[in-house]
Amino acid sequence: VVLPKAEKLLKVSIQPYISSILDALMEPTSRGFFEVRDVFFRELVDMSKNTLNNATKETVAQHMEKISMLPFHPVKMQSCYEKVEQLSLEGLQQRFDVSSPSVFVQRAQILMRK
């Protein structure tokens, strides 16, 4: 009894907007993850420069520890988080009763730290 009504609702009210929802979510999220990759790349380049001449197990271990803690470094990760905070669900918020994109932003930031 419910299935035909649910399918009709899906086709009329949700399916036409799926691509715009994905675009709205993916563009700033992708920029944030690209920034994460860039931050890690810079840190790895710094590590390789610092360990090139004096590569002992201890110095490599220290640098690896530093890199493993990078996701929790608020200053270095701030630019990554700011990219995702530009998320705008204008128009979609009213249609799907989303009061704020903050839940999407927070989830993306959690995934960035992982």
UniProtKB/TrEMBL annotation:
InterPro entries: Niban-like (IPR026088), Niban_1/2/3_dom (IPR059060). Pfam families: Niban2. It comes from the Eukaryota. Residues 8-114 form the Niban 1/2/3 domain. Belongs to the Niban family. This is Protein Niban 2. The gene is NIBAN2.
